[in-house]
Amino acid sequence: MTGSKRFDNYIGGEWVTATEYSTNINPSDLSDVIGEYAKADVAQVQTAIDAARAAFPAWSTSGIQARSDALDKVGSEILARKQELGTLLAREEGKTLPEAIGEVSRAGNIFKFFAGECLRLSGDYLPSVRPGVHVEVTREALGVVGLITPWNFPIAIPAWKIAPALAYGNCVVFKPADLVPGCAWALAEIIARAGFPAGVFNLVMGSGRVVGDAIVNSPQLDGISFTGSVSVGRQIAISCVSRQAKVQLEMGGKNPQLILDDADLKQAVELAVQSAFYSTGQRCTASSRLIVTAGIHDKFVEAMAERMRSIKVGHALQAGIDIGPVVSRAQLDQDLGYIDIARNEGARLVAGGSLVTCDTEGYFLAPALFADSTADMRISREEVFGPVANIIKVADYEAALAMANDTEFGLSAGIATTSLKYANHFKRHSQAGMVMVNLPTAGVDYHVPFGGRKGSSYGSREQGRYAQEFYTVVKTSYIGS
What we know:
By secondary structure, the chain is α/β, with parallel strands linked by helices. The protein has two domains: 6-251 and 456-480, Aldehyde Dehydrogenase, Chain A, domain 1; 255-437, Aldehyde Dehydrogenase, Chain A, domain 2, CATH 3.40.309.10. Helices cover 39% and strands 23% of the residues. The protein contains 15 helices and 23 strands. It has helices at residues 42-60, 64-80, 82-93, 97-117, 156-167, 181-192, 208-216, 230-242, 265-277, 294-308, 329-345, 378-381, 397-405, 420-429, 468-471, and strands at residues 6-7, 9-11, 14-16, 21-26, 29-38, 124-127, 133-141, 144-148, 171-175, 201-203, 223-227, 246-250, 255-259, 287-293, 348-351, 368-371, 388-394, 409-410, 412-416, 434-437, 453-454, 457-458, 472-480. The protein has a seven-stranded mixed sheet with strand order 15-16-17-14-13-19-20, sandwiched between helices. A six-stranded mixed sheet has the order 10-9-8-11-12-22, sandwiched between helices.
């Protein structure tokens, strides 16, 4: 669009123009153009990979203090600019401004955490079973890694991949989601000024079919970390395993939230609303299956309907808004399609589900809640990735647990109860990577492992010190006297 500012790729320590640019539009206001962002071609991706490969030998053996200082500088600048960057995030992705600022703060803290991890990487010094021999077990950088991130957390997910990769001495080729390049470019610009040698970090924006495929299929990359859809993730796994590259996948979720008869009703309603609908339901940890036991079911449905009447949908930058727009026209169409599917399957619409008119043209949707649904309905089986949730009535805790685990996914699961017995049993028997007791299923800390089981995740965990499992390789050295 004529007059819009252009933003280039960052390759080998330089900003590189492209032959094609995409327009970044605000989903809260379709007249608001954020900018035009470069779309890399295959040749530019290869140049980025070559630059990373050339930088790797020196960077992987560089001093840990220099790495720590550079990462800390990135974190400090992100935190100092959290209002500005949060506004950018809200404009391009549609999160409300408080949520967007919270995500930016998380990204800053992630970089600061891994600035410390540079100095905490440990190993083992062991005696051998053979006299006069000792054993050292150390960790070294994996190599050059391709990082592919989704649109729903446009700065936090890049941060929790990029920061550990750099902390442990890897070089990075980073491809953000084509829908939200703004935060990725802003993060790259900060990294570019933080003191990393040329080629250590590279940004290549563009489509998955071009940029993503070039990264995934490159024999010069030692590992791929991907967050996105199940179908794409499985294809990435096939490609990586076939050439023995390391792979880490975070994919979908159909997360259950159990509400037991003994739950505090007000608390249960609030955590269900936050789990299912905040961030417009566009979180892989969102709870779209509300599994409710018979004794509290009717009261819960009524209380949820009442609570949802007070939810305010609108422009992400407007004060007092609870939920911003859906991220794109395509995602809005998908959400509306699932609402129709749920109706056709026989579920009862309790609240929401209609388009919302605001002062600006955008993708505004009132969160939809269904009741009288069953476990075999598509609305209960498939990930919508929008503000659409359904309530399933069950007889008791045992039935709720069985239904919670009856899914191909296993990312996050929650339970609302005042019973220590049920809480402890659920923590042990839930087939999910993360379990929440009397808390929303969405909302995790940056210093602890993130990931799931079954179809939700593949490979080692992300975040916290567990990130070293993917970004490093173990070496065992024997020393004789």
